[in-house]
Amino acid sequence: MNLPPRHLRMFLALSESLNFSKTAEQLFMTQPSLSKAIRDLEETLGLPLFERTTRSVQLTPGGKRLAAMARTVIGEYDAGLQRMLSSAEEEARQLAIASLPSLATGMLPAVCAGLERRFAAPQITIHDCSNNACVQRLLHYQVDFALASVAPSHPELHYEEVLRDRFVLLSCGPWRRRLAPRMRLDDLAGLPLITMTDASTAMRYMSAAFLQRGMEFRPKMQLDQVGTIAGFVKSGLGVAVLPYLGMMPMQSLRGLQVSEIADGPVRSVGIVTRRLGTPTTIAQEAMAAVRAVGMDLMARHSDWILAPAAPAGESSLQT
């Protein structure tokens, strides 16, 4: 049995007015269309709902009982529809992003500030984690998109390069006096280097750069957190090797010097999305904001942050 809500609304409107012409006008339909809809409803129910004469329209006893039930059904339907719409509106304001910590720090604050202005009370979750963890969260539908520095080889994912950033040296104290503003990879061999752990893409980029020169990259220390690296550098325990975006939060620390690695690696930074499906409106806005922030970073830090190798290009490194 198929009872569309619209037919029940027609029935209730007519049960209150008991006038076909007035009800048809109220519902913006013709009187013959309303009469047919009521007849269809009566046939579906197997029950006469109205007693019609040339002078009046009255509810049958069964019609009176069903009118009371129809009001309850329509009321529950409208309440359920409103709950569903409210839930959909809340879902539309939710956004989850997986990002490398250095990208979360260097790019996402500006992105989220823009979303706060664009959407009413957006609910944003940021998962700052390793490149592989970002990819896994995206594959398991835990996030809307990811910010990563290595293009995934998974066939279900797409990588759009947004920018590239150069690797730099960060020194302090006695090491600051020993390092020139411009260094080369060969100059790094005798330095007490501090870098991220093997799980990081930063370590992978540096290892690949050294291997291309027939050398092994063997840092003095490997740490998980950039803030911890800054503390060790400030204490004079070594020289940090980091991508420029990873180093940016430490620029305000006194006594630190940034040195260029002239022939050092260049890290790809991009947006990873699922190939199938359409992102939500807020996710599309967030990705557009990431691109805009990338353009701004390239303009303000042109010596360190470079344009993509090619539009929508994919990095040659694979996870």
From TrEMBL:
<keyword id="KW-0804">Transcription</keyword>
<dbReference type="InterPro" id="IPR050950">
    <property type="entry name" value="HTH-type_LysR_regulators"/>
</dbReference>
<dbReference type="InterPro" id="IPR036388">
    <property type="entry name" value="WH-like_DNA-bd_sf"/>
</dbReference>
<keyword id="KW-0238">DNA-binding</keyword>
<protein>
    <submittedName>
        <fullName>LysR family transcriptional regulator</fullName>
    </submittedName>
</protein>
<comment type="similarity">
    <text>Belongs to the LysR transcriptional regulatory family.</text>
</comment>
<feature type="domain" description="HTH lysR-type">
    <location>
        <begin position="1"/>
        <end position="60"/>
    </location>
</feature>
<dbReference type="Pfam" id="PF03466">
    <property type="entry name" value="LysR_substrate"/>
</dbReference>
<dbReference type="InterPro" id="IPR000847">
    <property type="entry name" value="LysR_HTH_N"/>
</dbReference>
<keyword id="KW-0805">Transcription regulation</keyword>
<dbReference type="InterPro" id="IPR036390">
    <property type="entry name" value="WH_DNA-bd_sf"/>
</dbReference>
<dbReference type="Pfam" id="PF00126">
    <property type="entry name" value="HTH_1"/>
</dbReference>
<dbReference type="InterPro" id="IPR005119">
    <property type="entry name" value="LysR_subst-bd"/>
</dbReference>
